[in-house]
Design brief:
The complex is a heterodimer of chains A (207) and B (280). Chain A is of the alpha+beta class and 207 residues long. Chain A contains 2 helices and 10 strands. In chain A, a hairpin with a 3-residue loop joins strand 7 and strand 8. Chain B folds into 2 domains: 135 residues, no CATH class; 104 residues, no CATH class. Chain B is built from 9 helices and no strands. Classes of the chains: A alpha+beta (207), B mainly alpha (280).
Amino acid sequence: MQNKLVKAFKATISSIIVALLITGLLILVIKLFFGQEIEQAFSLVNKVSITIDENRVEEPTQINEEKNTLENYPEYGTKYGTIEIEKIDLELPIYFGDTLEILKNGIGHSSGSYFPGEGGSIIYMGHNYKKMLRRLGEVQKGNLIKITTTYGEYTYKVYDMQLIKETELDKLPVQREKEILMLYTCYPFNNIGYATQRYVVYAELEK
Amino acid sequence: MKIIAKIIKFILITILVICIIAIGMSKIVSSTILDKTYTMQKLEETNFYSETYELVKSNFENYIYQSGLEETVLEDICTEEKVKNDIEQIISNIYDGTDIKIDTTEISDKLNANIDELNIKNSRNEKAIEQFVKHITDEYTNTILHTKYEDEINNAYGKITNLIEKANTVIIIAIIADVIIIILSNIKKVSRNLQDLGIALLGSSSFVLIANNIVQTKVNIAGIKIFNDSFSEVVVTILQNIVEKINTFGMITLVVAIILIVIYIITILLQKTKEETTEK
């Protein structure tokens, strides 16, 4: 009886070994010949895959006064401040980003520009809708624009206004020599249809 | 000579393993993403139609803010029913090979009627309004279609299904030929067929289960984001369902493999007992 059981046990083990050997062999062959392509496919899928860390605690945005740079930048698409222009009774939220979805909710901050307090060009934009920047044309030189962020308050004084074409990006230069706020909207303000011109208000840091 | 026979048997079983895996995967793909009814069912389950309708409305609003027109012009220009019908039309274009373009006349007519009610049209803004209407209808088509590669996708479906059909025929012939050769090689010990088939199924199941596990570990399927939330949900649901089906296939082949090996062992034990009884 023992002999028979040993024989059966051997048959089982040999079946499993052969099966695993084939599996291993196939995996090896696939890895050898298609390994790189498979890894590329994985990384491609992971590029469009978002992992949300539910335990992550968001660090507050702070300004490093010495380096003139922000620590823990706001997340793209989030609100990080408000803009006030007393002259035109305007108070709107500022969001980091400039997608159409963001611009529906308030003023968008061009992600290629600097943040208030960083000592460079800040580019803000908003629709010319009546709840948004329809009255931007009433802003005059010397008027103040107050930006209140989660990390500090900044006041800018308007020193220029310009009408530019949507393609004239050189009129919105990104630099880090001087803190300048550039706020723009579509022009004409009560335009119907797609506007190809932009009305830009330039303001420099007052305090 | 015995070693050569064993090597040949090993190769035959390996071919059988590859064929079993290939036929299993082909059946899973054919019954999921390549099946029109399945896709429609998943779209319904994930509320794709209503979410796309909401997205269409939201995208229209983006243009309103730029246009300088009142929000009221967008009222009732598009219905959820139209969105559903148009999506179904796109699905038919892909799966049934039809070539019906999305008709936006209804939307532009309703939009123009709403604008006329505002009484703001004049010779100066006429062209701008025309452009705005075009932007809205283009936006609708873009939101519904999601891709500019519509024709390529439509053609790809036909090519893929054709290729799979041919591959299935080749695989089935290979399986039959392979099994016949294995049976012939075991002509003196018929019970060995059970063991060989058991090994092939065991190899297939372990490969499928390991590979599926690797994919699940390396790819965050649940977090995939393509185009927008509603489309991503459909993609994630379908991919997760495919992963589940592959797992089920692996488990079924594993169970069948175990059953075959157990039957083989019982057969050996019975044969030995019979031999011993005869000897006595």
